[in-house]
Amino acid sequence: MNPRWTEMVKNQLAARGISEKRTLRAMSEIDRADFVPEALQSRAYEDGPLPIGYNQTISQPYIVGFMTQCIVPAGAEDSIALELGAGCGYQSAILSKIFSRVIAFELVPELADLARQNLAALGITNVEIRTGDGSAGCPGQEFNAILGAAAFSVYPKHLESQLKIGGRMILPAGTESQSLFLASRSDAGITRKRVLAVRFVPMIDKN
Fold first, then answer.
1. Which of these is catalytic: 19, 42, 59, 135?
2. Could you report the per-residue pLDDT of 116-168, keeping only the tens digit for each?
3. Mind listing the pLDDT tens digit for each residue in 37-68?
4. 109 lies in a domain?
5. pTM greater than the 0.90 cutoff
6. Interior CA angle at 169 toward 189 and 185, to 5°?
7. Which residues constitute the domain of residue 117?
8. Strands (E), 29-162
9. Does residue 157 sit within a domain?
10. How many folded domains does the chain comprise?
11. Domain assignment of residue 207, yes or no
């Protein structure tokens, strides 16, 4: 394991409150450098987002860890996650280590292809990358977790109905001022709260 990768997990994640064991293990098993463009390899472990082309970015390691930690399923049973905005596939790969199955949407065809290539190179087979607009989620399906990697201009309440009982959703929403929202579904209904101020690229709705 690259010493700078080890340092990233220790200093950017564990030292800043990312303590959930499955999250830290996944971040220790998936090398961010495998998803960063070749020209930016020297910056692969930086504490910030990096461009991946097509006006998109690979998220800051801390944010990837924070969002993942928020939605880790409680049990060890079969679980399925929905990701909106796969980009180069880094977050998808992290989720693949925690969930039995991951469905990830990516609007930019070239990035969807890149994500598939990156995941295949690592032998990851439980992630399905779907090319297209994921802003509507998967109507009629339910998930243990939903993660949005691009900012909705308005918080998407419609996605809450796609959570299973016990499921959680984390995603950014807002325009000039963005926040991460964490929603949970229980027998009593939906609870929702703001958890962190963030800055993500905007979700593009092609509907």
1. 59
2. 999 999 999 999 999 999 999 999 999 999 999 999 999 999 999 999 999 99
3. 999 999 999 999 999 999 999 999 999 999 99
4. yes
5. yes
6. 15
7. 3-198
8. 50-53, 56-58, 80-84, 101-106, 127-131, 143-148
9. yes
10. 1
11. no
